[in-house]
Specification:
By secondary structure, the chain is an alpha/beta fold. The chain has 13 helices and 16 strands.
């Protein structure tokens, strides 16, 4: 490195150090901590644009679990110094970073490894557990280097066949007349930025396969569509919303140009455009599994018996649940309900019986844990409960048993009121009320 280069490098390092010290003023970690405080700018420079393995905690200063983790995470940073970088993001202040990486609760720990595609750390919140996971990621990097492969090379699956080639002739039929969500790249074959984007575009198309379609159109040949969508530079990416399309369905893509950026942007848009989830009555195990098995959270409600709460009353509760399903649809949660006493095994597993009806619990089927609503079964009460749950607040308890509760097959509610059982008439014509039985 030349003297000039060393001088510039030294000044840049000192400047970055000053910036990190300033950023540390809002950090939960002490200035002398080995944990590196990160904001959106330093995150790109230090994490994404480096060859280091990074462990990153996304936290909120008010989060009790984050405060409990702090001394352990400090130990992690000290133990891994010189081996793996350890950072922390105040996601309450830098919400864009938390949103970009799908952070839904605090603390969330992610490991940025070979290709900088983050992996969630779901192990114990102890220094030993986090260090083991970080060393495993570092070990993968070393083994790849020994095999002669670059740290990020070949880690991306990028099949160009997953990018659909578009033309003036097939554009309307393929894109506009489909119900799918589309990202379309308008490119020029001679464009250097387009060539750089090509492998990232292919990798994103492979990862989004089955969810979002990615296409590419040579704008130097297919000038009709390029003119229609006012393409003035290359590459230009346009977003076409899912569902029936019209003139308002197209928007500019304003995300980053790495495959990870493209995938995260597309999934966020997909979540915005998905319909609200159905609130499904639990009438069989198949119904429950279809609604909840692959969901991060399943919201389970037990509504009063139809004799205690007729159709108007029940529909009122269901309307509240449907509204909340719409509000939280981006979370991709499942929503189910059962009538009181119809699924006693569920009520027993969730310990619902002691609180009366209606009752509600949020269940993580993969972890076999749940959290019970203690407040009012109302829009505001449930919303507050779910919001706290999203931020990692509120206690959880293990489900009774190691498996899903046994579901009893029941008949779906027909939407009507119920007739109370008729009392049987007793014929007293043969009874002589004047006679007295003798003992």
């Amino acid at each position: 490195m030349s003297r000039v280069a060393r001088t510039i490098h030294g000044k840049m390092s000192r400047l970055l150090g000053v910036l990190l010290l300033i950023a540390g003023a809002n950090s939960m970690y002490a200035p002398n901590s080995a944990v590196i405080d990160l904001d959106p700018i330093s995150f790109d420079n230090l994490v994404l644009n480096s060859d280091h393995i990074w462990v990153v905690e996304f936290y909120a200063p008010w989060c009790g679990h984050c405060k409990q983790l702090l001394p352990e995470y400090d130990k992690v940073a000290t133990a891994l110094k010189g081996v793996v970088k350890v950072g922390a993001v105040n996601a309450d202040e830098h919400k864009s970073l938390g949103s970009k990486y799908g952070v839904r609760g605090f603390p969330t720990i992610k490991i940025f490894g070979l290709d900088k595609k983050p992996e969630d750390y779901n192990g114990p919140r102890s220094a030993a557990g986090i260090v083991d996971a970080a060393l495993n990621a570092a070990s993968q990097k070393v083994r790849r280097a020994l095999s002669g492969k670059t740290s990020g090379g070949e880690s991306k699956s990028k099949d160009p066949k997953n990018v659909i080639e578009l033309t003036d002739e097939n554009f309307d039929k393929t894109v506009l007349n489909s119900e799918d969500m589309w990202l379309v790249e308008f490119y020029a074959p001679w464009c250097g930025h387009c060539k750089n984007l090509a492998p990232e575009w292919a990798a994103a198309a492979t990862e989004l396969k089955g969810k979002v379609k990615l296409g590419a159109l040579d704008a130097t040949v297919n000038t009709l569509k390029a003119s229609k969508y006012e393409i003035k530079g290359y590459p230009t990416i346009k977003f076409f919303a899912p569902g029936k399309k019209d003139a308002d369905s197209v928007q500019d893509f304003d995300g980053g140009r790495t495959s990870g950026d493209i995938v995260n942007w597309a999934l966020e848009k997909l979540a915005e455009n998905i319909p609200a989830p159905e609130v499904v009555q639990i009438t069989s195990e198949q119904k429950l599994r279809a609604a909840c098995e692959d969901k991060p959270i399943c919201v389970v409600s037990v509504l009063p018996h139809i004799l205690d709460c007729q159709s108007d009353c029940r529909n009122g509760y269901l309307k509240t649940l449907i509204s909340l399903g719409e509000k939280y649809k981006k979370k991709m949660w499942g929503w189910v309900w059962a009538e009181a006493s119809a699924q006693p095994n569920i009520e027993d597993a969730l310990e619902i019986g002691g609180f009366g009806y209606p009752a509600l619990a949020a269940v993580n089927i993969k972890k076999m844990k749940y959290s019970l609503l203690k407040g009012s079964f109302s829009y505001d009460g449930i919303n507050e409960f779910l919001r706290d749950l999203s931020y990692g607040r509120g206690g959880t308890a293990p489900l009774k048993g190691a498996q899903l509760p046994v579901i009893i097959e029941t008949t779906p509610w027909d939407g009507k009121d119920a007739e109370p059982p008729q009392e049987e008439d007793i014929d007293l014509s043969d009874v002589n009320l004047d006679e007295k039985d003798e003992l």
